[in-house]
Amino acid sequence: MAKSKKDKVKNKALSSGSLDSHLAVKSFFNAGKAPDIDETLRKAGIQRHRLSILLDDDEIGQAAETRLDALLGAPYRLEPNDTPEAELLTQELNEWFVEIATSAHNALFFGYSVQEAIYERKDTHIGLEWVGEKPMEWFEPKSDGRLIYRPESGLESEVDQVVKFFLTRRKSSYQQPYGKALLASLYWLFFFKQNGFKFWAKFLERFGTPILLGKVKDGSDEDVQAMNDALLSAHAQSVISIDAEDSVEVIGVAQGTAGTSFDAFNNEIKRQIQKLILGQTLTSGNDGGGSRALGQVHENVRKDKLKSDIRMITPTVQAVVNALCKLNQWSQHKVIIGDEKSLEIDKAERDVKLRDAGANLTPQYFQREYGLQDGDIAEAQELTPKTFSAIPKQAFSFKADVQKISPDQQEVDDLVDDIDKTLFSESELLKVVETVKNPDELQEKIYGLMASESVEKFNATMARALYLFDVVGYVQRSK
User: Fold this and answer.
1) Residue 216 phi, psi (nearest 5)
2) 150, 152, 284, 331 — which has fewest CB within 10 A?
3) What does DSSP say about strands 211-215 and 139-141: parallel, antiparallel, or unpaired?
4) H helices then E strands: how many in the chain?
C-alpha cells in the first residue's frame, strides 16, 4: 500500500531536519572517555569509585545500611502471577533479588552501577547462574544511553544491555551521564569528621593528661636534667623522689571546656550525615527534643526515600525479568516492588462511619482506596424474598388472636387478596372441607389437587381452606 502524501512529508521533515537524532553533541562525548564533571570530586582530586572509603565510616555506613535494609524488606510480585512462566520467574527472583537490588542500590551512592549476568540451561528453562556488580571504573555510561566497556587492553567496546549487562543510574543528565553520587555530597563532611578526630586525639594527648612541672631551687643544669628524667619516669611509675628544696606541680586543662566544643562539632557532623542519607532525623530542627509529630514526619520522610529507591532500581529488576522472558521466549511480565497497601486505620474508621450514616460505598471505591484486585470483593447477592417473613410488627387482629393463628398464617391471610383466587371458588373449597376430619387430611387433600401449582397459590388456598374448616367447626359446634 503506497504511503500517503502526508506521511511522505512527515518522513522528509524528520530526515532533513534531524528531528530524530541529537545535533548538539561535543566530540569528546563520542571519542575517548568523557571527563567526570562532578565539582566535588574535581576539587577533592579523587576518582568516583574511590568514594567507597566513605562507607567504612561508622555513621555513614550505618545510615546507608538503614536505607538498604528498608529496600530489601519491600515486597515484590509479578503481573500476571498465575502463569507457569510467572512461577519460574519468581523462583529466579527469590534467589537473586537481594544481589540485584543491592548492586542497583549502589547507584545511589556512586551515581551509577553495572551488573553482569551469566545464564545456564536448567531443567525447564534458561535461568541465572550468577548476576552481580562489576567494578564501575571498567565502564563508562554515555549520554545517549550506551554503555562502554574499557578493559585494561585499551580496546573499548559497547556492551549489550538487553540480556548481558544492566546499568542503573541516579539523577543522570545529558551533561552528566555518570549520575549524581550521594557520597560526593558527603565527602567534605567525612573529611572534616576524620580530621576532627585527629585533632581531638592530639588535643587529648597534649592536654588530656596532666603536665608535671618541676622546680629546682638554685640547681645546676645537671640538677634540672635530673629533675626532667625523674618526671619522665614518674609518668610510667607514678613515683618520684626529689630534694626537700625542690617542688613538683600538676598542670591540667580547665574543667568544663575540654570536650564541649568537640561534642558540638561532632554532633553537628552526625546530624548533617543523617539528613543527607536518611532525609531527616528525630533531633534535627528540634535541638534534641522529641515529639510524636516530629517522629511522624521522620517516618514519612523515610517512606519517601524508600519510594525513591524503589523507583530507581525497578527498571533494572524489570530489565533482568525482560532478559529471562526474551531468552525463554515467554510473554512479558511486569515486576512490582513495594506496592503492598496496608489497612489504613483512620480511613477504615471513616468508611465505617460513612456506611453507618447511609453512604453506599461501591466495590470500585474499595479497590481504588485499599489496593484490592479484581475478584477480591464478591458482588452482593440478591436474596430471593421468602414467602413468609413472620414480621412481628403487625396490626392487631381480633380474629387471629381468638383463633390463635400464628404470625405466618396471619401473613398468608393478608396476602390472600393479592393472589389469584379463581383456582377454587368458595363452594368448591367448602365441598373439600366437608370431606375431611382434621387439618392434616385437609392439607393432603389440597396438596393433591394443587400439585402442579406454585407454593404461593398453595399457601393462599390452604389458608382459605383452614378458615372455612374453622367456620364449619364453629357452626357444627353451635348446632
Assistant:
1) -105, 120
2) 152
3) unpaired
4) 17, 10
Identify the band that residue 340 occupies on the pLDDT scale cut at 50, 70 and 90.
low
Residue whose grid cell is 554503555: 147
Number of other CB atoms surrounding residue 181 within 10 Å? 26
Task: State residue 169 phi and psi, 5-degree precision.
Answer: -130, 150
Q: Is the pLDDT of residue 283 over 90?
A: no
Please give the Cα distance from 119 to 320 (Å, whole number): 11
Chain centre to alpha carbon of residue 140: 32
Asked whether the bond before 80 is cis by omega within 30 degrees of 0, the reply is yes
Cell of 174: 545529558
Query: What are the residue boundaries of the structural domains of the chain, listed by start?
Result: 34-182+266-340, 342-380, 398-478
Q: Cell numbers at residue 223, please?
A: 640538677
pTM comes to 0.58
Q: Determine the Cα–Cα distance for residues 339 and 354; give it in Å rounded to an integer.
A: 27
- Check residue 398 and give its pLDDT: 46
Three-state SS at 410: helix
Query: In this structure, are residues 102 and 109 in contact, taking their beta carbons and an 8 Å threshold?
Result: no
Report helix, strand or coil for 17. helix
Asked if residues 201 and 295 have their Cβ atoms less than 8 Å apart, the reply is no
Express each pLDDT in 49-98 by its tens digit. Answer: 888 888 988 888 888 998 999 899 899 999 888 889 999 999 999 999 99
The grid coordinates of residue 275 equal: 539528613
The answer to whether residues 168 and 108 touch, using CB atoms and an 8 Å cutoff, is no
The partner residues of 247 in beta bridges, in order of sequence, read 215
